[in-house]
Amino acid sequence: MNQHQQTVKKCCESLLEPTCEAALPPIAYRYLRWNELEQFQTKSIEWFTLNAVLLAELETRSLHDVLLAELRRVAQLEDVHRLIPHEKERQAFYQFSNVIPFQKREKGRC
Fold first, then answer.
1. Mean model confidence pLDDT for the chain
2. CA atoms of 58 and 14, how far apart (whole Å)
3. pTM of this prediction?
């Protein structure tokens, strides 16, 4: 785990503390809990970390502020779907969350 990943892990763990006052949407907490269960070793959190680091550097903001802002934007299952680009990880998250997502119907089928 590199330095940025360790920083993100510590930040995410602090957001999961019961004493944390940062209000995140429930689905964002679930995303963090799932990553915690996976020991923050998912491709999703790796991708999220790289994007947060880039955004922090471009906007000259702290990594913690960027992470908090981006996690606050995760308000629906669809937002988490975009955070998890790999299908196996999506399925693992859905199983963790006890969610069965709707599937798109093919044209011409009812």
1. 86
2. 24
3. 0.83
